[in-house]
Amino acid sequence: MMPHIALMCVDILSAANAYVLILLGIGRLFVRRGNPVEIWGAIAFITGGTDVIVDVLQRMDLAPLMPHILYLTHPLEYTLAPSLYIFFNLLVDRDYRISRKHILLFLPAVAVTAVMLPYFLQSGAQILIQGSLWNVASPLMSGILYLIDRGTTIVLLGALSAFSIRIGIILARGHSPRLHEARSLWIYSALVLTWSVVYTASLITQAHILESFSVLAIGYLALALRLLHSADHHPLEAIREAISDSRYRMSKLENINVEKKIDLLRNLMEQNRIYLDEELDLTKTGKLIGLSPHQLSEILNKELGMSFRTYINGYRIEEAKRLLTGEPDRNLLDVAFASGFRSRSAFNACFVKHVGVNPGEFRKSPKNR
Protein backbone atom coordinates (compact mmCIF):
# COMPACT_ATOMS: atom_id res chain seq x y z
CA MET A 1 0.00 0.00 0.00
CA MET A 2 2.77 2.44 0.96
CA PRO A 3 4.78 1.96 -2.29
CA HIS A 4 1.57 2.59 -4.25
CA ILE A 5 0.93 5.85 -2.38
CA ALA A 6 4.57 6.88 -2.81
CA LEU A 7 4.40 6.27 -6.56
CA MET A 8 1.17 8.24 -6.78
CA CYS A 9 2.86 11.17 -5.00
CA VAL A 10 5.79 10.98 -7.43
CA ASP A 11 3.39 10.96 -10.38
CA ILE A 12 1.47 13.97 -9.05
CA LEU A 13 4.72 15.86 -8.48
CA SER A 14 5.87 14.94 -12.01
CA ALA A 15 2.61 16.27 -13.47
CA ALA A 16 2.97 19.49 -11.45
CA ASN A 17 6.52 19.96 -12.80
CA ALA A 18 5.22 19.34 -16.32
CA TYR A 19 2.54 22.02 -15.94
CA VAL A 20 5.23 24.46 -14.79
CA LEU A 21 7.32 23.62 -17.88
CA ILE A 22 4.34 24.22 -20.18
CA LEU A 23 3.59 27.57 -18.51
CA LEU A 24 7.25 28.59 -18.73
CA GLY A 25 7.32 27.65 -22.41
CA ILE A 26 4.18 29.66 -23.18
CA GLY A 27 5.43 32.59 -21.11
CA ARG A 28 8.78 32.86 -22.91
CA LEU A 29 6.99 33.19 -26.24
CA PHE A 30 5.58 36.49 -25.07
CA VAL A 31 8.73 37.78 -23.33
CA ARG A 32 11.06 37.80 -26.35
CA ARG A 33 8.95 37.47 -29.45
CA GLY A 34 10.76 36.31 -32.54
CA ASN A 35 13.84 35.08 -30.64
CA PRO A 36 14.72 31.63 -32.10
CA VAL A 37 16.06 30.39 -28.76
CA GLU A 38 12.79 31.24 -27.04
CA ILE A 39 10.64 29.82 -29.86
CA TRP A 40 12.41 26.46 -29.92
CA GLY A 41 12.72 26.43 -26.15
CA ALA A 42 8.97 26.93 -25.91
CA ILE A 43 8.33 24.12 -28.42
CA ALA A 44 10.61 21.77 -26.46
CA PHE A 45 9.18 22.69 -23.05
CA ILE A 46 5.53 22.55 -24.14
CA THR A 47 6.03 19.25 -26.01
CA GLY A 48 8.06 17.73 -23.17
CA GLY A 49 5.63 18.91 -20.50
CA THR A 50 2.65 17.53 -22.41
CA ASP A 51 4.49 14.23 -22.91
CA VAL A 52 5.12 13.90 -19.16
CA ILE A 53 1.49 14.67 -18.29
CA VAL A 54 0.20 12.10 -20.78
CA ASP A 55 2.70 9.54 -19.45
CA VAL A 56 1.59 10.19 -15.87
CA LEU A 57 -2.09 9.82 -16.80
CA GLN A 58 -1.33 6.45 -18.40
CA ARG A 59 0.58 5.21 -15.36
CA MET A 60 -2.27 6.29 -13.07
CA ASP A 61 -4.53 3.86 -15.02
CA LEU A 62 -6.73 6.61 -16.42
CA ALA A 63 -6.63 5.20 -19.95
CA PRO A 64 -10.08 3.54 -19.62
CA LEU A 65 -11.52 7.00 -18.99
CA MET A 66 -9.42 8.66 -21.72
CA PRO A 67 -8.53 5.91 -24.23
CA HIS A 68 -7.04 8.30 -26.77
CA ILE A 69 -4.12 9.19 -24.46
CA LEU A 70 -2.74 5.68 -25.02
CA TYR A 71 0.47 5.94 -27.06
CA LEU A 72 -0.03 9.68 -27.54
CA THR A 73 3.46 10.02 -26.05
CA HIS A 74 4.96 8.49 -29.21
CA PRO A 75 4.38 11.37 -31.68
CA LEU A 76 5.20 13.79 -28.86
CA GLU A 77 8.56 12.17 -28.15
CA TYR A 78 9.48 11.89 -31.84
CA THR A 79 8.80 15.65 -32.03
CA LEU A 80 10.61 16.40 -28.78
CA ALA A 81 13.91 14.84 -29.88
CA PRO A 82 14.68 17.19 -32.83
CA SER A 83 13.20 20.15 -30.93
CA LEU A 84 15.65 19.60 -28.07
CA TYR A 85 18.53 19.18 -30.50
CA ILE A 86 17.80 22.54 -32.15
CA PHE A 87 17.09 24.29 -28.84
CA PHE A 88 20.31 23.11 -27.18
CA ASN A 89 22.40 24.15 -30.19
CA LEU A 90 20.78 27.59 -30.34
CA LEU A 91 21.29 27.93 -26.61
CA VAL A 92 25.05 27.49 -26.61
CA ASP A 93 26.18 28.23 -30.19
CA ARG A 94 25.69 31.83 -31.33
CA ASP A 95 26.41 30.88 -34.96
CA TYR A 96 23.84 28.09 -35.15
CA ARG A 97 21.26 28.91 -37.81
CA ILE A 98 17.93 27.31 -38.66
CA SER A 99 17.63 26.33 -42.33
CA ARG A 100 15.37 24.24 -44.54
CA LYS A 101 17.50 21.16 -43.92
CA HIS A 102 16.21 21.11 -40.34
CA ILE A 103 12.84 20.02 -41.73
CA LEU A 104 14.46 16.63 -42.31
CA LEU A 105 14.89 16.20 -38.55
CA PHE A 106 11.11 16.16 -38.16
CA LEU A 107 10.40 13.61 -40.90
CA PRO A 108 10.37 10.71 -38.36
CA ALA A 109 7.80 12.60 -36.25
CA VAL A 110 5.63 13.23 -39.33
CA ALA A 111 5.95 9.61 -40.44
CA VAL A 112 5.11 8.26 -36.98
CA THR A 113 2.06 10.53 -36.70
CA ALA A 114 0.87 9.46 -40.15
CA VAL A 115 1.28 5.74 -39.38
CA MET A 116 -0.47 6.07 -36.01
CA LEU A 117 -3.31 8.26 -37.29
CA PRO A 118 -5.68 5.33 -38.00
CA TYR A 119 -5.13 4.18 -34.41
CA PHE A 120 -6.06 7.59 -32.97
CA LEU A 121 -9.08 7.93 -35.29
CA GLN A 122 -10.69 4.84 -33.76
CA SER A 123 -13.38 5.14 -31.13
CA GLY A 124 -12.36 4.86 -27.49
CA ALA A 125 -13.95 1.41 -27.24
CA GLN A 126 -12.01 0.14 -30.28
CA ILE A 127 -8.73 1.42 -28.81
CA LEU A 128 -9.37 -0.41 -25.54
CA ILE A 129 -10.27 -3.61 -27.38
CA GLN A 130 -7.10 -3.43 -29.53
CA GLY A 131 -4.89 -3.19 -26.45
CA SER A 132 -1.24 -2.90 -27.52
CA LEU A 133 -0.40 -0.57 -30.39
CA TRP A 134 0.98 -3.32 -32.63
CA ASN A 135 -1.99 -5.68 -32.14
CA VAL A 136 -3.21 -5.33 -35.75
CA ALA A 137 -4.07 -7.81 -38.51
CA SER A 138 -1.23 -6.90 -40.89
CA PRO A 139 2.11 -8.48 -39.83
CA LEU A 140 3.99 -5.71 -41.65
CA MET A 141 2.09 -2.90 -39.92
CA SER A 142 2.41 -4.74 -36.62
CA GLY A 143 6.19 -4.80 -37.03
CA ILE A 144 6.33 -1.12 -37.96
CA LEU A 145 4.22 -0.11 -34.97
CA TYR A 146 6.36 -2.27 -32.67
CA LEU A 147 9.52 -0.52 -33.90
CA ILE A 148 7.87 2.89 -33.39
CA ASP A 149 6.99 1.89 -29.84
CA ARG A 150 10.54 0.77 -29.03
CA GLY A 151 12.22 3.68 -30.79
CA THR A 152 10.83 6.54 -28.69
CA THR A 153 13.64 6.75 -26.16
CA ILE A 154 16.26 5.82 -28.76
CA VAL A 155 15.52 8.93 -30.86
CA LEU A 156 15.72 11.11 -27.76
CA LEU A 157 19.02 9.55 -26.73
CA GLY A 158 20.29 9.93 -30.32
CA ALA A 159 19.37 13.63 -30.46
CA LEU A 160 21.13 14.41 -27.18
CA SER A 161 24.19 12.38 -28.19
CA ALA A 162 24.36 14.15 -31.57
CA PHE A 163 24.25 17.52 -29.84
CA SER A 164 27.02 16.62 -27.38
CA ILE A 165 29.22 15.20 -30.17
CA ARG A 166 28.70 18.27 -32.39
CA ILE A 167 29.64 20.76 -29.68
CA GLY A 168 32.51 18.56 -28.54
CA ILE A 169 33.98 18.53 -32.05
CA ILE A 170 33.74 22.33 -32.32
CA LEU A 171 35.51 22.82 -28.99
CA ALA A 172 38.16 20.18 -29.66
CA ARG A 173 39.01 21.35 -33.19
CA GLY A 174 39.45 24.92 -31.99
CA HIS A 175 41.84 23.86 -29.19
CA SER A 176 40.27 26.60 -27.10
CA PRO A 177 42.16 27.43 -23.90
CA ARG A 178 38.72 28.20 -22.46
CA LEU A 179 37.59 24.61 -22.94
CA HIS A 180 37.33 24.20 -19.17
CA GLU A 181 34.61 26.86 -19.14
CA ALA A 182 32.29 24.45 -20.91
CA ARG A 183 32.44 21.94 -18.04
CA SER A 184 28.86 22.79 -16.98
CA LEU A 185 27.75 21.75 -20.48
CA TRP A 186 29.47 18.37 -20.15
CA ILE A 187 28.02 17.84 -16.68
CA TYR A 188 24.50 18.71 -17.81
CA SER A 189 24.81 16.61 -20.98
CA ALA A 190 26.12 13.67 -18.97
CA LEU A 191 23.18 13.94 -16.56
CA VAL A 192 20.64 14.04 -19.38
CA LEU A 193 22.31 11.15 -21.24
CA THR A 194 22.42 9.14 -18.01
CA TRP A 195 18.74 9.85 -17.52
CA SER A 196 18.01 8.62 -21.07
CA VAL A 197 19.78 5.31 -20.39
CA VAL A 198 18.04 4.82 -17.03
CA TYR A 199 14.63 5.69 -18.46
CA THR A 200 15.14 3.32 -21.40
CA ALA A 201 16.17 0.56 -19.00
CA SER A 202 13.07 1.17 -16.87
CA LEU A 203 10.83 0.74 -19.94
CA ILE A 204 12.59 -2.41 -21.14
CA THR A 205 12.56 -4.06 -17.70
CA GLN A 206 9.09 -2.65 -16.85
CA ALA A 207 10.47 -1.28 -13.58
CA HIS A 208 7.58 1.06 -12.79
CA ILE A 209 9.19 2.61 -9.71
CA LEU A 210 12.33 3.49 -11.67
CA GLU A 211 10.19 4.83 -14.52
CA SER A 212 8.23 7.11 -12.17
CA PHE A 213 11.35 8.57 -10.62
CA SER A 214 12.90 8.97 -14.08
CA VAL A 215 9.93 11.05 -15.22
CA LEU A 216 10.21 13.15 -12.07
CA ALA A 217 13.97 13.61 -12.62
CA ILE A 218 13.63 14.87 -16.20
CA GLY A 219 11.19 17.50 -14.97
CA TYR A 220 13.80 18.87 -12.59
CA LEU A 221 16.54 18.69 -15.24
CA ALA A 222 14.34 20.71 -17.59
CA LEU A 223 13.50 23.24 -14.89
CA ALA A 224 17.20 23.59 -14.07
CA LEU A 225 17.94 24.36 -17.72
CA ARG A 226 15.14 26.95 -17.81
CA LEU A 227 16.56 28.66 -14.70
CA LEU A 228 20.09 28.63 -16.14
CA HIS A 229 18.82 30.18 -19.35
CA SER A 230 16.86 32.90 -17.52
CA ALA A 231 19.59 33.88 -15.06
CA ASP A 232 21.94 36.78 -15.66
CA HIS A 233 25.58 35.75 -16.23
CA HIS A 234 24.55 32.10 -16.24
CA PRO A 235 27.07 29.31 -16.94
CA LEU A 236 25.73 29.07 -20.50
CA GLU A 237 27.42 32.40 -21.25
CA ALA A 238 30.81 30.86 -20.48
CA ILE A 239 29.97 27.96 -22.79
CA ARG A 240 29.00 30.35 -25.59
CA GLU A 241 32.26 32.23 -25.17
CA ALA A 242 34.25 28.99 -25.23
CA ILE A 243 32.52 27.88 -28.45
CA SER A 244 33.01 31.30 -30.05
CA ASP A 245 36.66 31.17 -29.00
CA SER A 246 37.05 27.77 -30.68
CA ARG A 247 35.33 29.01 -33.82
CA TYR A 248 37.53 32.04 -34.30
CA ARG A 249 40.61 29.88 -33.87
CA MET A 250 39.41 27.94 -36.93
CA SER A 251 38.43 31.01 -38.93
CA LYS A 252 40.15 33.98 -40.58
CA LEU A 253 39.06 37.61 -40.89
CA GLU A 254 39.80 37.72 -44.59
CA ASN A 255 38.92 40.87 -46.55
CA ILE A 256 37.71 42.61 -43.40
CA ASN A 257 39.03 45.97 -42.29
CA VAL A 258 39.34 45.19 -38.60
CA GLU A 259 40.25 48.72 -37.52
CA LYS A 260 37.25 50.15 -39.35
CA LYS A 261 34.94 47.61 -37.70
CA ILE A 262 36.34 48.49 -34.26
CA ASP A 263 35.74 52.18 -34.97
CA LEU A 264 32.16 51.43 -36.06
CA LEU A 265 31.60 49.41 -32.92
CA ARG A 266 33.04 52.13 -30.71
CA ASN A 267 30.84 54.71 -32.41
CA LEU A 268 27.74 52.59 -31.81
CA MET A 269 28.63 52.42 -28.13
CA GLU A 270 29.59 56.04 -27.58
CA GLN A 271 27.17 57.80 -29.93
CA ASN A 272 24.20 55.46 -30.22
CA ARG A 273 24.67 53.92 -26.75
CA ILE A 274 23.38 50.56 -27.89
CA TYR A 275 24.73 48.98 -24.71
CA LEU A 276 21.59 50.28 -22.96
CA ASP A 277 19.60 47.54 -24.74
CA GLU A 278 19.40 44.76 -22.17
CA GLU A 279 18.78 42.21 -24.95
CA LEU A 280 21.94 43.21 -26.84
CA ASP A 281 23.98 40.22 -27.97
CA LEU A 282 26.68 39.26 -30.47
CA THR A 283 24.17 38.58 -33.24
CA LYS A 284 22.43 41.97 -32.95
CA THR A 285 25.68 43.88 -32.65
CA GLY A 286 27.35 41.99 -35.48
CA LYS A 287 24.51 42.82 -37.87
CA LEU A 288 24.89 46.54 -37.11
CA ILE A 289 28.52 46.52 -38.31
CA GLY A 290 28.27 43.83 -40.97
CA LEU A 291 29.91 40.95 -39.13
CA SER A 292 28.84 37.45 -38.17
CA PRO A 293 28.68 36.72 -34.42
CA HIS A 294 31.91 34.68 -34.41
CA GLN A 295 33.73 37.32 -36.50
CA LEU A 296 32.80 39.97 -33.95
CA SER A 297 33.83 37.65 -31.13
CA GLU A 298 37.14 37.00 -32.88
CA ILE A 299 37.87 40.72 -33.22
CA LEU A 300 37.04 41.41 -29.59
CA ASN A 301 39.13 38.52 -28.31
CA LYS A 302 42.12 39.02 -30.63
CA GLU A 303 42.25 42.80 -30.87
CA LEU A 304 40.82 43.96 -27.55
CA GLY A 305 41.57 40.91 -25.42
CA MET A 306 38.09 40.58 -23.97
CA SER A 307 34.79 38.81 -24.47
CA PHE A 308 31.69 40.52 -25.84
CA ARG A 309 30.03 40.48 -22.42
CA THR A 310 33.03 42.11 -20.75
CA TYR A 311 33.18 44.76 -23.49
CA ILE A 312 29.49 45.67 -23.19
CA ASN A 313 29.50 45.64 -19.40
CA GLY A 314 32.41 48.09 -19.37
CA TYR A 315 30.20 50.70 -21.03
CA ARG A 316 27.26 49.83 -18.79
CA ILE A 317 29.33 50.28 -15.66
CA GLU A 318 30.56 53.69 -16.83
CA GLU A 319 26.95 54.71 -17.46
CA ALA A 320 26.00 53.48 -13.99
CA LYS A 321 28.83 55.43 -12.39
CA ARG A 322 27.64 58.56 -14.19
CA LEU A 323 24.08 58.07 -12.92
CA LEU A 324 25.19 57.26 -9.38
CA THR A 325 27.20 60.47 -9.09
CA GLY A 326 24.98 62.73 -11.21
CA GLU A 327 21.63 61.63 -9.77
CA PRO A 328 22.23 60.87 -6.08
CA ASP A 329 18.52 60.43 -5.31
CA ARG A 330 17.89 57.84 -8.00
CA ASN A 331 17.34 54.36 -6.53
CA LEU A 332 19.81 51.59 -7.37
CA LEU A 333 17.30 49.37 -9.17
CA ASP A 334 16.41 52.21 -11.51
CA VAL A 335 20.11 52.86 -12.12
CA ALA A 336 20.60 49.18 -12.97
CA PHE A 337 17.82 49.15 -15.56
CA ALA A 338 18.84 52.54 -16.98
CA SER A 339 22.38 51.21 -17.50
CA GLY A 340 21.29 48.17 -19.51
CA PHE A 341 21.25 45.47 -16.81
CA ARG A 342 18.35 43.08 -16.51
CA SER A 343 18.39 42.78 -12.71
CA ARG A 344 19.86 44.37 -9.63
CA SER A 345 21.76 41.22 -8.70
CA ALA A 346 23.54 41.16 -12.06
CA PHE A 347 24.25 44.88 -11.75
CA ASN A 348 25.75 44.53 -8.26
CA ALA A 349 27.93 41.56 -9.22
CA CYS A 350 29.24 43.26 -12.35
CA PHE A 351 29.82 46.57 -10.57
CA VAL A 352 31.88 44.93 -7.82
CA LYS A 353 33.88 43.03 -10.44
CA HIS A 354 34.75 46.21 -12.37
CA VAL A 355 34.95 48.83 -9.62
CA GLY A 356 35.86 46.86 -6.50
CA VAL A 357 32.95 48.11 -4.37
CA ASN A 358 29.19 47.78 -4.64
CA PRO A 359 27.09 50.63 -6.13
CA GLY A 360 25.91 51.86 -2.74
CA GLU A 361 29.45 52.14 -1.38
CA PHE A 362 30.58 53.86 -4.57
CA ARG A 363 27.85 56.46 -4.22
CA LYS A 364 28.68 57.13 -0.56
CA SER A 365 32.36 57.64 -1.25
CA PRO A 366 33.30 61.32 -0.50
CA LYS A 367 35.17 61.70 -3.81
CA ASN A 368 31.99 60.81 -5.76
CA ARG A 369 29.80 63.40 -4.07
How would you describe this protein?
Helices cover 73% and strands 0% of the residues. It starts with a helix and ends in a 5-residue tail after the last helix. The mean pLDDT is 78.
Fold topology:
Blueprint: H1 2-31, H2 36-59, H3 73-92, H4 107-120, H5 124-130, H6 139-150, H7 152-174, H8 183-205, H9 208-230, H10 235-250, H11 258-272, H12 282-288, H13 293-304, H14 308-326, H15 332-338, H16 344-355, H17 359-364
Helix pairs in contact: 1-2, 1-9, 2-3, 2-9, 3-4, 3-7, 7-8, 7-10, 8-9, 10-13, 12-13, 14-15
Q: Enumerate how many helices there are, as a single number.
A: 17
Residues in helices, as a percent range: over 70%
Number of strands: 0
Q: Report the portion of residues in β strands.
A: under 5%
Order of helices and strands: HHHHHHHHHHHHHHHHH
First and last CA, distance: 70 Å
* Uncertain residue ranges: none
Global shape: elongated
Instruction: Report the structural category.
Output: mainly alpha
Biggest β-sheet description: none
Mean pLDDT: 78
The radius of gyration over CA amounts to 25 Å
